[in-house]
Request: fold
Amino acid sequence: MDYLNRDSFFTGVSEGVISFDRIIKMFNVLDDNLVIEEKGIYSIENFLISRRLMYWQVYLHKTVIAGEMVLVKILKRAKELAARGEALFATPALQHFLINDVTEADFFSEDIHLSMFVQLDDQDIFASIKVWRNHSDRILAQLCKMLTNRNLYKVEITNDAPDQNRVDVLKENTAEFLNLIGDEVSYFVFTDVVRNRAYDAGNSNINILLKNNIIIDIAKASDLSNLESLDKTVKKHILCYPRII
Reply:
């Protein structure tokens, strides 16, 4: 509820504004279960619909995806270089994860990993990226320049997977233009999938407390016919490639 209102304010997208104060007032507890009183059902409906709209209009916007994908590729390349023994500028927290292969299980077995992780923030990442712009590895340098110069990927979002022949042509043209060899082109031309599920009824139900003390799921309690569809995962295919093509 907090990030919907906050992000709506800073992005100017009014669809994310919700009446969080009313929802909080409607909280109740029955048999150790957190529930929403029946009179708050319309505020919950607005919350779920706003969440869905904000994901497609803001969080999964083409520009957001483009920036995120460049950042992912930068960190992937930096990790590969560090694994080869390359010296990379980084803060101690970031350096820890560049030179060590940390698994999910490691976070539970060794406190040092979690301690380093909580020290990471955007300043650690962006300071390194500014320095890596001049790194001798041209792949890493090029990706960092793309992010800092806001020359992001061109992103196409479709319901179906992109045509493989077109992807191959984009890879050939990019490899030739940037003088890339082998799988280096995968840093600049690639496909992926994004998913959005506004409401996960099986995992984190929002229960409505009716006046007769019966608990019912919001999707069944709502008189909006399309609310149950929010429980379905929407999958979109994305194609990313540099704007030089």
